[in-house]
Structure prediction request, 414 residues.
Amino acid sequence: MAKAILTKNSNKHSDKNTLLIALCWLVYTCSYLGKLSYNANITKIEEVYSVSHSIAGMVSTFFFFAYGIGQIFNGVFCRKYNIRLVVVASLFISGLMNILVAVSKDFTCVKYFWLINGVALSILWPSLIRLLSETMDSASIGRAVIVMGTTVATGTLIVYGLSALFVAWFSYKVMFFVAGILLPLIAVIWFFSYPKLTKKDNAPAENYSREVMTKSHLNSVFWISVCVLAFYAVVDNLVKDGLITWIPMILKEIYVLPDYVSILLTMILPILAIFGTSVAIALRKKIKDFVWLSSLLFFVSAMLILLVILCLPTGNVIITLSSLGLISCLMASVNNVITSMVPLYWKDTVNSGLLAGVLNGFCYLGSTISAYGLGLVADNGGWSSVFILLFSLCVFTVLLALGYSITRRLKKKQ
Prediction:
């Protein structure tokens, strides 16, 4: 009888975990409607406001700067947050900023609206990862990694798909209105679902909210790994978000495609990126070291970027897009390793919300550079110069991994 009761409680707890993971997935996936609505329509926005690549990219730079700094801040302080309320506030503010961008006639105001949007949305990831790490048992962590790893690619796919549809049939501004309406609705669902899904029962998950920063095994090797992964986070998002932001413009300028076709073809990137989580999980079974796992993905990406550089003069859009799609998949894999696997699998070692916030903050430092920086490189040296820069960065990460390996061996000998 007792065994039957325990089994029933265990199944009930597992169902609750599944629903909580699904709710977190819904929140973070839909947040991308508010996050990427500008980037997905940047070609049309440049045309409407008559601004250059670098000026248009400055808006995204404002967002990514605020988002990156906010990630680190929220990572440090998220353990003190009322997660139920801060998520609601985040989604409502993002929805409002999207509406303001849609109705704004002064382009100089847009970057300030998007700055506030970045601050608001930066609350979500460290808070959600902290929540999952505190409520999930060890059996559910693997599921959480897989599911949450698909949020970025799925959200990006939805945004670019809807944007292509709206640009072709209506107006790019519809995307901002959709985000402005949908995000508050998701906030309401979150507010009323949260208490039931996080209520403690007779079979609670292991609680990892305790502060474990002072454990003796937090040695120099561990922190070297964290520092290398932080740098990888910068490069990963510089490449990943740089491609997502500027591929519509590249397709328009090099291959002379209409705006909606450029946006539609760019959807290939997030479609393939959805499989990035599966790639990361499959490789994790063979390569346990997160640094070397990421380095392998960077190396293959470097070879594909080299192929793109060679194909640009030929005008072969099929090879170019195929290569870029594979790069997007690999960069999504790196992103999943750094922002999901590392915080959740190392939750016994360091606070997951803190680590998720810090590493994701470095990711968005790369995004900050990608928006304005790559636009500036393109303005001055053309798109070939952009891909040469991305190739060099990916190669450098592999060299850094070799240095990391040497340093780690020396530390172990000591």
Remarks:
- Confidence is low (pLDDT under 50) at residues 1-10, 203-218.
- The two ends are 55 Å apart (CA to CA).
- Residues 377 and 386 are 6 Å apart (CA to CA).
